[in-house]
Amino acid sequence: MDTLTRRRFLLTSGVVGAGALAAGAGAYSLRDLLDTSGDRDPQARTLVLVTLYGGNDGLNTVIPYGDPAYRAARPELAYPDGEVLRLDDDFGLNPALAGLHQRWSGGGLAIVRGVGYPKPDRSHFRSMDIWHTAQPDRPGNTGWLGRWLDSAGGDPRLAVSFEPALPPLLAGAQSAGAAVPVTERKAAKGLSAETLAALAAAQAGESAARSRAAACFADLRSVDEMIRQVRDAADPDTADPDGEQAPATATGGARTPLDAQLDLVAQCVEAGVSTRAFSVSLGGFDTHADEKQLQAVLLGQLDRALTGFADRMSRTEAGRKVVVAVYSEFGRRVRANASDGTDHGTASDVLLLGAGVRGGWHGAAPSLTDLDDGDLKFTTDFRDVYATLLERVLDTDPGPILADWRGRVDNLL
């Protein structure tokens, strides 16, 4: 780690491990990432981890429409056969996932089925702690990507979050990833474009501190402009009529739209920055009531963001080395509740896409009738997925990071 990076990290964190979670919230800018352009091995892969906060209903995402138990358990929530985007004679995608359905047809989407962990916890926060730390028995104070960061040298720019705060999964014992804020800042009314430009410009003879302040302000203006462009290009039917960003939900998720977060990831990948792992998120999936419409809106946002990002990445050599993994802290219960929603469940699917992903089914689908107190029994341990990503994407021995976990998802990458 260079001297500037080390000093900034130590000053902003003060402590390591769990206490480092607030470390990067304002300590790094997009410029800090772009300063590393050209520093990485051109053959190295990049991991983009997409967290769906709130517990996405996997059974109405990858739909077992061919199983009569599906419709029997949730007659009002079940999708009719004619609406499902068929993957085969038994399963199909939610109608809102048309872009991902096209990628499946082209072999670019992998679905790992029945992913979970032993003795599942149905608390949002406890289960997310388990997924972040990869320690189901007793979540510790370091995340699995934070431990990878420790092993990779500790430079926070190697693991970056474009979320409101650094997620626990990027906290290591000796270091933590960088949180780069991307939410829009609004200047006070009355400041002209010329004045704002002057504030962002370095002046001859000024101190190093003032020069740095000007550079940081320039970064903020640059990020604001990028986010504005992404928003202006978004589908007008999905925009907030008041032009405001939706707040993060109580169960987590970034304030910034997922497509804006992925736009910044794409720019970093195309610039060849040193970052090997990015964390982005979308919240709002805690669908206890009136689930069908809300989930369709959220899945539509996910679909547009992922397919737009994947299409963009397919155009460059660096982009074709990106692997995207999408997960949520748990699925929902098999049977619908009395409010046209679903309650906290257990196992669900992990979606992966990218040029290096071997598309198709991976793992066994859980039974809808052989249940654990009304919940799906997991068939793939999530550590199998993590170990595969560490080994095949981040070029790292998973043993020291995942407590010598030996499971893998065969032929995934």
UniProtKB/TrEMBL annotation:
Classification via Pfam families: DUF1501 (PF07394)
Transmembrane segments: none
Cross-referenced InterPro entries: DUF1501 (IPR010869), TAT_signal (IPR006311)
Region (Disordered): 233-254
Name of this protein: DUF1501 domain-containing protein
Annotated organism of origin: Micromonospora zamorensis
